Amino acid sequence: MSMFSIFGISGSAVSAQSQRLNVVASNLANADATAGPDGKAYKARQVVFQTVDLGDAGAEGDPTTAGKRYSAGVRVDAVTERQDPGRRVHEPGNPLADADGYVTYSNVNAVEEMVNMISASRSYQNNVEVMNTAKNLLLKTLQLGQ
Predict the structure, then answer these.
(1) Closest Cα partner for 52 from 4, 97, 5?
(2) How far apart are CA 44 and CA 29, in angstroms?
(3) Phi first, then psi: what are they for 45, rounded to 5°?
(4) Rounded CA gap, 5 and 11, in Å?
């Protein structure tokens, strides 16, 4: 694995965490929503990650590395909706109330989403720092040759 592959690996993680942050922002924006785009209660979304395979990393003819495969990043595989029910609040005067007088709000848990946002933000920052460190190491290496 070359030093330059670090940028691809961290870059894919930055991109994936950026998508995760967008999903969290959408969830938080709809935390108190009673109706989503389809007219039903908004359902919280979550990002599913998948590793990206670098492929066969073995050197040709080298029995110690032949057939080994290495992961080389991450990508967003899917954005799924959480299926747990939304919270029901008794509001008989609300036009969206059902026959029993209950309004169904989204199933977004604001505390969980804030924790998810902090985690995604930290992961994003860490991967940016990895890329900056790799860049500085490459620059120092080039300066050694001068």
Answers:
(1) 5
(2) 10
(3) -110, 155
(4) 10
Q: Flag the least confident range among 68-72, 81-85, 90-94, 102-106.
A: 68-72
Enumerate the domain spans of the chain.
Answer: 5-31+45-81+108-144, 33-43+84-107
When pLDDT is averaged across residues 78-88 and rounded to a whole number, the result is 91
pTM above 0.90, yes or no: no
Length of the chain: 146
Residues in contact with 79: Cβ distance below 8 Å, sequence separation at least 6, in sequence order: 19, 23, 45, 46, 47, 48
Average pLDDT for the chain: 86
Q: How far apart are CA 115 and CA 121, in angstroms?
A: 10
* pLDDT at residue number 58: 46
Written as one letter, the residue type at 121 is S
Q: What is the DSSP letter of 86?
A: P
**CA distance readout (Å), 61 to 1, 57, 70, 104:** 17, 12, 18, 63
